[in-house]
Write a structure and sequence with these properties.
It is a single chain. It contains 5 helices and 2 strands. It is mostly helical. It has a single domain, classed as Arc Repressor Mutant, subunit A. Strands 1-2 form a two-stranded antiparallel sheet. Strand 1 and strand 2 form a beta hairpin. The longest helix is centred in the C-terminal third of the chain and has 33 residues. The radius of gyration is 20 Å and the shape is elongated.
Length: 147
């Protein structure tokens, strides 16, 4: 379908959803910087802690989960390791594999930021959810036809 098939209301729904996402991301970026880390560093900590069962915290997995290139993830890990927020450890199962772990400092930073994010989602989450539901629950918004 082309953009000609989307109604003005459809564009408004998409714009509102995007706006709600940006508001939350803006909050998240500010919260991370207020804790003296960059937003991607916060995302790295959250990605490590929040891996689903069966996913091991390797550079490759973290890069995939963060949608980053391998070398960018390595640089991010280097900076967080210098800050004392993460450590690299050889895997007990395969000594060639390196696993990334949060340190107590990394855990503390992530805990503080996560509490703030949960609180923010209690406020902004309903609007975000409603904007998404308006799109998901509606068939493709056809362009209004003029008579």
């Amino acid at each position: 379908m082309s953009s000609q098939d989307i109604s003005h209301a459809g564009f408004q729904q998409l714009a509102l959803f995007r706006y709600c996402i940006r508001q939350f991301l803006h909050f998240s970026e500010q919260a991370a910087r207020a804790h003296s880390i960059e937003p991607q560093q916060h995302q790295l900590l959250l990605t490590i802690k929040g891996l689903p069962p069966g996913k091991r915290p390797t550079v490759t997995v973290l890069a995939q989960r963060m949608c980053l290139r391998h070398h960018s993830t390595v640089e991010l890990l280097n900076r967080m390791e210098e800050r004392g927020a993460v450590v690299r450890r050889p895997s007990a199962q395969d000594r060639r594999e390196v696993l990334i772990e949060l340190t107590p400092l990394g855990e503390k930073i992530l805990q503080e930021l996560s509490v703030l994010h949960w609180q923010e989602l209690q406020t902004s989450g309903p609007a975000l959810s409603e904007a998404l539901q308006a799109i998901v629950n509606r068939s493709f918004p056809e362009r209004e036809h003029s008579a």
